[in-house]
Amino acid sequence: MTTTQSEVDFEEPGQVPGAPLLEVDDLFVEFRTRDGVAKVLNGVSYRVEPGETLAVLGESGSGKSVTAQTIMGILDMPPGFITGGEIRFHGENLLKASARRRREVRGSGIAMIFQDALSALNPVFTVGFQIEEQLRLRRGMSRKDARKRAVELLDQVKIPNAKGRVRQYPHEFSGGMRQRAMIAMSLALDPEMLIADEPTTALDVTVQAQIMDLLKDIQVERNMGLILITHDLGVVAEVADRIAVMYAGRIVEQSLARDLYRKPGHPYTQGLLDSLPRLDLKGTELRTIKGLPPSLLNVPKGCPFNPRCPRVQDICKTEVPPQHRLAPGRLSACHFAEELISGD
Ligand SMILES: Nc1ncnc2c1ncn2[C@@H]1O[C@H](COP(=O)(O)OP(=O)(O)OP(=O)(O)O)[C@@H](O)[C@H]1O
Ligand code: SF4
Ligand SMILES: [Mg+2]
To answer: Where in this chain does the record put each ABC transporter domain (predicted)?
Structure first.
């Protein structure tokens, strides 16, 4: 692709024309605590393009949020240390960017919504004020214009009576409405990329589905990149284009969602699928993955999943499985990955 000079002029410093929207490349993070060094991310890589939804899935403690916090530049440092890798936004390595540049990218380049909207929203300011403040400080809007835009945003996330609601405090909103307000706030600066960290966990099933639908609609409308973090494969089944499965700070499988649901390429993914409730098997007992994820202070030798894996062999206890490329865009870190998907 050729690039004209005027296109180059509009790029931010450090950005590379034609580069992917977001790439996490071989990221290593550790926490140095009094109990020892917890190697929390061990070579995490994924990428997201405009208009694409990547679901990041894994049990508690697998490193999903730490990856997101590192992307956003809000990792707790210390005790956290980034010991390797790059995070590229339009080709610009954010880990090398100045604090000022990172603040610019936060919110207007990449925005994030959190699991617990109540603690993410400030209880002493109205919902409207919290949206308007960003618009005034970051976009230089007048009070009047910022109020108008805040109402539009609340309207977009389908909050009824947005004109009246904009004057209310977070505690006056229901759980689902608060999560919608959080989404509106995250959209205020028109980000190109949105990270939603367990956005529906605190909500009941019906509201969960509504929020997922809303996120999907907004993403399509704005052609945003979306990272949906969850521990529940069921929640993302309808909305994810691709899925990255994390275990003990590694991506153990990465695949198009439809391929992964049809035939998982890693025993851990298989375990997650087996533990989903299924309408067609009503009354049968749910199979869960036995055991617990390892302590990151002391990860098992070889494949980190080996103490819990139903397919474990001797090699698994001594050799770390490499990433097997099963198909374009499909990776699995299991010694027996090819066997698992054979017969396709
Ligand atoms: N500030 C911190 N200090 C020390 N350890 C931390 C800190 N933040 C996270 N960790 C550790 O990093 C590991 C990964 O945590 P992370 O929050 O990314 O997990 P997660 O996959 O998001 O889990 P969950 O589904 O529970 O949200 C965990 O072992 C956690 O205890
Ligand atoms: S490498 Fe071995 S222990 Fe690890 S997931 Fe594959 S079969 Fe199981
Ligand atoms: Mg988390």
So the answer is: 22-273
